Amino acid sequence: MGMQTGAHIVWDWNGTLFHDNDAVIGATNAAFAELGLEPITLEQYRAMYCVPVRTFYERLLGRLPTDAEWELMDDTFHRHYIEHRVRCRLAEGAAELLAGWREAGRSQSILSMYGHEELVPLVRGFGIEAHFIRVDGRTGPSGGSKAEHMVRHLGALSGVEPSRTVVIGDAADDALAARHVGARAVLYTGGSHGRASLEAAGVPVVDSLAEAVEEAERLAA
């Protein structure tokens, strides 16, 4: 493989390349049921969701969950998410966009807060692994922020400059992680956040991954 030509995309996985909203809502409501909370809709979720996840639970509980509650909800969420996940697919047009970016001689990678051991086989199962120069999931406990992971991720990529890198994700946390390393970001409204909360991040907000890639090309030029 020759030298990367310029622009690099760091893709988020859940809610961005992987359209898993139904699994997330199903798993969230299963976790809520453990604490006797009412189920919520996708609209409510998008309006209230935030990172770190404990803060999201605090918004719904009206107080911070105890360590025991957090562990119970986290375990319940992951168990149910895996059950629901099998019915989820890639976001519309994602496979074609990934192939097109690679065929243009540009590089791309995945950085996800989803567990690394589960992420890699999932990406492989969709037949898209070859499009990425690196696939990194979270190692260590869940619930943190993406910024520190982004430092390690970019540090492991040779020939990729942060100034020519664009992070594409569905959460304000993706924009914060990009800023932390001196990269740009584009946020996509198809995942866990509504447009209003994304626009507060002060980066371009788009409604499709095709628009996200166009915007990435423009930002990295």
The overall pLDDT, averaged over residues, is 93
Q: Which structural class best describes the helix and strand composition?
A: alpha/beta
Total of helices: 10
The low-confidence parts are: none
How far apart lie the N and C ends?
22 Å
| Shape label | globular
- The side-by-side strand order for the widest beta sheet comes to 5-4-1-6-7-8
CA gyration radius, whole angstroms: 17 Å
**Biggest sheet record:** 6 strands, parallel
SSE layout and pairings?
Layout: E1 8-11, E2 18-19, H1 21-34, H2 42-48, H3 53-61, H4 67-85, E3 89-90, H5 94-103, E4 107-115, H6 116-125, E5 134-138, H7 147-155, E6 165-169, H8 172-181, E7 184-188, H9 195-199, E8 205-206, H10 209-220
Parallel strand pairs: 1-4, 1-6, 4-5, 6-7, 7-8
Antiparallel strand pairs: 2-3
Helix pairs in contact: 1-4, 7-8
Structural overview:
The chain has 10 helices and 8 strands. A 6-stranded parallel beta sheet has the order 5-4-1-6-7-8, sandwiched between helices. The protein has a two-stranded antiparallel sheet with strand order 2-3. With 221 residues, the protein is α/β, with parallel strands linked by helices. It is globular and about 50 Å long. The protein has helices at 21-34, 42-48, 53-61, 67-85, 94-103, 116-125, 147-155, 172-181, 195-199, 209-220; strands spanning 8-11, 18-19, 89-90, 107-115, 134-138, 165-169, 184-188, 205-206. Helix 6 (116-125) links the parallel strand 4 and strand 5.
